[in-house]
Write a structure and sequence with these properties.
With 89 residues, the chain is mainly alpha-helical. Helices cover 46% and strands 11% of the residues.
């Protein structure tokens, strides 16, 4: 498997998601302090490549949907994402 490389914003989003239980979308802005449009775009990028999933399931989200979903790390990528976060520093 290829090594995962994340941008700074992607790393901030992945760090903000609780690997065990997920994180409600309405807490993401508070945890990351990324502008809402950029946050939604970053989350959609992570959803597109399969690293992040939403509950209930959506292929992408909008700013209006963010407070209503829970973001979870895809278990198939959990170990690789943890390694990517550690390698950065």
């Amino acid at each position: 498997m290829k090594k995962i490389k994340l941008s700074g914003r992607e790393m901030a989003v992945v760090r903000a998601i609780d690997f065990a239980t997920g994180t409600p979308g309405n807490e993401m802005f508070e945890r990351t302090r990324i502008e809402m449009e950029e946050l939604v775009g970053t989350i959609n990028g992570l959803i597109e490549v399969g690293f992040v999933e939403t509950m209930p399931y959506h292929n992408s989200i909008t700013m209006e949907m963010l407070p209503k979903v829970t973001l979870e790390i895809n278990p198939g990528y959990a170990q690789e994402l943890k390694s990517a976060l550690i390698r950065r520093f």
